[in-house]
Structure formats: C-alpha cells, structure tokens
Fold Heme-binding protein.
Amino acid sequence: MTDLTLAAARTIVEKALAHAHAAKFKPLGVVVVDARGLVRAAEVEDGSAFLRFDIAHGKAFGCVSVGVGGRTLQKFATERPHFTTALGGLTRDRMTPVPGGVLIRDQAGALVGAVGISGDTSDNDELAAIAGIEAAGFKADTGA
Amino acid sequence: MTDLTLAAARTIVEKALAHAHAAKFKPLGVVVVDARGLVRAAEVEDGSAFLRFDIAHGKAFGCVSVGVGGRTLQKFATERPHFTTALGGLTRDRMTPVPGGVLIRDQAGALVGAVGISGDTSDNDELAAIAGIEAAGFKADTGA
Amino acid sequence: MTDLTLAAARTIVEKALAHAHAAKFKPLGVVVVDARGLVRAAEVEDGSAFLRFDIAHGKAFGCVSVGVGGRTLQKFATERPHFTTALGGLTRDRMTPVPGGVLIRDQAGALVGAVGISGDTSDNDELAAIAGIEAAGFKADTGA
Amino acid sequence: MTDLTLAAARTIVEKALAHAHAAKFKPLGVVVVDARGLVRAAEVEDGSAFLRFDIAHGKAFGCVSVGVGGRTLQKFATERPHFTTALGGLTRDRMTPVPGGVLIRDQAGALVGAVGISGDTSDNDELAAIAGIEAAGFKADTGA
C-alpha cells in the first residue's frame, strides 16, 4: 500500500480532464481516492446531472475496496449478479461496477488508489482515467 | 438558484486552503457542493484520517439541504435534538451539524451552494470556508 | 446449538491458512462465526483489499443466519433472485451468497457455526474452509 | 500511513489477551484494524454476548476513521453529542465512542491502525489494548 499525495491526485484530475477536452468528451465527474477509499481530489464539470459525483465515486470506491479494475467488476456483474448485489450491500451502496473505474498502481504494482470517471461512454470515461493516471507517473489497471 | 461553475468551486477550494496554510491550520478536507447538493470540487490534504471527506461533505450537504449555515444546524441540535436526529435520517446520514459548513450566496443573497471544511477546530474550519467563499466573489452565510 | 470454543475457532483459522499456503492460494481473509453469528476468530492476510473481511464475513454470516451452506445460498440466488435480495435486506447487507461459506457441524450434525473465506476463487476458498473445519474435528457442510 | 502485517496484528491480540488473563479480566473481544479500517485479526473469548465483536470493532473502526483515540471520541460525545451522532451515521453505525479503542502508531508517530477491546470495564479494556500494542513494538494513543 503506497501513499497517494494530494499533489498527485490533483495531477490525475487535471490531466484526465485535459484528455477529455482534447477528445471532446461530454462533461465529466472525476473522483480520485487513495488506498483507504478516502476521496483525495474531485471535480465535476458544468452541465452535469446531480448524481454525477456519486456515480464516479462509486467507480473509484468499488475498485479500490475489492482490489480490481472496473472491467473485472463488470465481468463479476454479468457472470454472477448475486455476488455483485452482495458487494453493493457490503460497500453500503457505494459501488458502480462498470468501466471508468481504474486502479492506480505504482511502477512496482503496489496499490495506490483508484480513479472513477463518469459522464461520457464508459469506454471514454476509462480513457480519460488512464490518461490522468499515466500523466502522474503511475500505472493504470482497468481490470481488462 | 444560481449556478455554481467549476471554475468558481476551484477558486473556493484553493483560497480556503491558502488561508489555512497562512494560519497554520491542521490538514483539512474541503468540499464544495452546488445548490443541488452535487459535489463540484473537493480536496483532502495529506495526513488526513479516512473519514475526513465524509465529515466535510456532511457539513456542506447538511447546510445546502436544509438551507441554513452550520451554526444554525448546531443551534437546532442543541435546542431540538429530535429534529436534528430526523434531519440526519432524512439526509441518509449525510449531515454534520456543526460550524465549518457555510452557505455560498451571491451578492443578491440567492443560494449558490455550500462549503464544508473539517480538520482543525470547527471555528478555524469556518474561517477557511469564509475566506474561500469571499475570495471567489460570493457572500458567506455561516448561520450565525 | 453446540458451543464453539475460541480454541476451536483458532484451529480452524490456522489450518485453513495452512491449506491455502500449501496449495499456493492468493492472500485470504478467514472469518469464523458461532451459531449466533458472533465472530469468534478472524485473520486477513497481507496484501488484501479492504473489503476482504466484509466479503468473508458475509459468507459465514449468511450461511449461519439461514442455516445452509454457501452453495445452497448461491442456488437460491440463481433460482429465486428475489428471495436472495430479501435475505440481503433481512441480514442488513451482511450476506455473500457464494461458495466459500461453509457450515460447521458436530459429528452428530448439530450446527456449531460457519466459516467464510475470500481471496482466491470461490472453489479454492471453500477447499480451505473445509480443511480448517475438518482439522478441528468437525464436519463441513458446503450446501452442495 | 504505515502497513500493519498480520504477524503484528496477531501479536497484539495474543498479548492483549495475556494481559487480560493475568489481570483476571472478564471474557474479551479483541479486534485489530489497519489504517484502512480493514480487520486484520480478531478473537472473541468464550462466554461473550453476541454483540461483543461489533462493540469492539466499533471502538477500533471509530478511532481509525476519525484519527483519534477512544477517550477523545468520548470527550466529543459528552461535549457535542450531535457531532457524535453525525459521526455514527457517517461511519454507517460502526463507531463505539468510548475508551478501549486505541490508535496504533509507529515509533515516529505515523498511524498504523487501531485496536478495539470490549468485555470488562472500558478502563480495563484499554489497559489490555495498550499492553498488546506495546508488546508488538508500537506506541499506544488512547486519546487521553
């Protein structure tokens, strides 16, 4: 377990949004949590629906709590929906098991935290998350 | 209801933390929500306990959900604790009824959102929130 | 209802982990509850995600609360998902209805408690639970 | 934030119970969580009521989530009960704000986790927690 600094979390948010703007994505919500599930930095763009933060948060929190990327959570959901329902309850309804939740790992592979992004397609949300994580010098684990 | 832009929310976070650093406060969590209760910007400083975001969020969310500042919520709590207990349930346990939650109002008095800060004393948390709100060109309503 | 001693619960944890280490399983969380659902012994290995205890606990607690092994809970979930959803609510979201939750029975078949293990595949989790239960002189009821 | 190993968590449980037995305390529940709030080791002695684990867990989880020892949580509760009620909700009712919850710090003061003990008087519960923490080479922070 590696500490995530606020400075690094800020860089991830900034670079994820820069990627989204360059690619002309829809308005996004971006949430960065550390290995404890604590929100360290978050921004939600103008024009977002009022659940946007919670959806993005659930992607990040779900990934870091189970220790897998959002694509693995989605695979669980399609293969064993009752397990995913249970995980939803165990996280006190704070899990969004779809792509766009991406684990942050250091170069040695240790867990640092997770990013959750929501607002465009799940695939595009994930691309923005990867861009932010890599720009901050970490490795992105999407669960693919 | 006046729109809160992400740009304004960022300024509030930045200036609240600048005030805290100048005054040598402890590490803070800062959460800015708009008039719908949506988190627009948040940062939690290094060295924070893992409930810090939730405590700060509960200050902001509680204020904007009831439409009063944190000092009014605390007054409710001491004068009519059963009402505060009910408000806690009605917000699904997302209310922290103490100072450090401050409403953001525009110069005409319209509700724009709220800031919640946690980490130092409640009085100092509130001072940082006021500094951020005013630096962004809004009026701070502490409920005092 | 037969009493489960702490000494027996410790043996179950120790022998389940010994089996897992010999079989080179991933890091596990192991939770032993008695017939009342009370946690009597638990250990979570280094390198575990932070929901690991809750997932393992939900396997043990779910089994002992309904009185069936994890494979039966999973069968319920696939055949009558609405019943499983109800059980999730009735246990206050403390049920993980998949294999790896195994009832502990004495040699006469009386209920003694349950073991929940999580971290590797559900099948491997279950093998470790059986190993622990049998090493402590009890019979394992997986619900198969 | 320093990692807590299972080996260290086991030592804390063992030495806390050794202290309790030497001092002839009543049957105890002992729960050790890491800096993320994850249960790493727990034991509940024979003759315990069925809420014993949850009470002990709430002491440990409450301390580590807020970042203060149990005596500070108790002080919050007597001075500002509405704040404590809010913390209860924010932790999803997983906080027991009384002595017997003790932070584990390394020799440099960094947060490693927390111990929660319940079963005898709160003062005696706390003594057992301190004994376990110190025997494992850490510093105990009771919040006094």
Observations:
- The first strand of chain D starts at residue 29 and ends at 34.
- Chain D has one domain: 6-141.
